[in-house]
Amino acid sequence: MNKVVVLKKGKEESLRRFHPWVFSGAIHHIEGQPDEGDVVRVVSAGGDFLGWGHVQIGSIAVRILTFHEADPIDATFWRHRLRVAYDVRRTLGLTDSYRLVHGEGDDLPGLVIDIYGSTAVMQAHSVGMHVSRHAIAEALAEVMNGKVENIYYKSETTLPYKAGLHDENGYLLGGPADDVAYENGLRFHVDWMGGQKTGFFVDQRDNRALLETYAHGRRVLNMFCYTGGFSFYAMRGGAALVHSVDSSARAIDITRSNVELNFPDDPRHQAFAEDAFRFLDTMPGRDDAEGYDLIVLDPPAFAKHRDALHNALQGYRRLNAKAFQKIRPGGILFTFSCSQAVNKDQFRTAVFTAAAQSGRSVRILHQLHQPADHPVNIYHPEGEYLKGLVLYVE
Ligand code: SAH
Which of 62, 134, 284, 359 could disulfide-link 291, Cβ–Cβ 3.0 to 4.6 Å? Predict the structure, then answer.
């Protein structure tokens, strides 16, 4: 039987502009009793075809996969979408560690695939992608034509709990492999089974490379270091010392082993499992020779939802205020927000308010964003999430 989602009158406008989400409030009724994760046909109140998409219970009720009526969601569809995504990454010249599929940015809402050498780590953020995981893995192996030998599926933390899906983490192709991956010639372990997200944050690749160019001779503090990405780039850039801080002891262990992998027995690096706010409060001040003159602040998303926006902005302001207060004269601050609910202007206002409170003179050197392998679908501007500023503090 045909599974059809019929919209309320006038609610088709955003789909006609190719925005890929149908909110539950826009739905008039659903025909054919689809299960969560099924592919449904979405039509306007007048019965016009709008798109095929994955249905599920929640505020985003349908994620549109295609706006073309003649495109069935089958093996050919998955192969085509993955091939386009792969062509984009080849155009970018990416070969080692990169994001192959960035959800809506690659017209595959609900799906993320990161590549680490010969291993792909796949995450479903929708029930539909979860249901389709085997078909996607098959298409992926075909499109990558031998370049991917292992596909690890990891969705226990990204799927809606209420869908009642079981913990399905595991290999869809191959098995445990060498966990050392490369980025710009540096090496790191990827804990795709136990780590956050897919095990490494590939989205800071370009920004780490930029940091490397500023590191020479500087005393670097990498706050919220997770796997230590910014730390080993700073080491290669010739930093005088690098201190990595994260509240997770596990993250600190991974950071130590990643730095060790690239710079064995290098006394310039030290890592501390401590709370960021506490560390910033107790660390040496601006006029202390032991202070820092290059600070990275890359906190976790302070606002996961719009409701949390106010608190999130307070959090960014407080955090940055501490850094402005303590950084040595002539220091450089790399400060980021990865909260999708916080836009670029709101983040800037929070940071600039913090700067003003410290009374320091501050210049913008660079305005940073997510890299090209995390593309933004022009019809889905919400896909822009990573924002950063590189600031010179007099
Ligand atoms: N900069 C990292 C990514 C940071 S992810 C990279 O380039 O890969 C955010 C990190 O912040 C996580 O590792 C988490 O453990 C840590 N974290 C969360 N709250 C914290 C706090 N209050 N103090 C210190 N670290 C914290």
Answer: 284
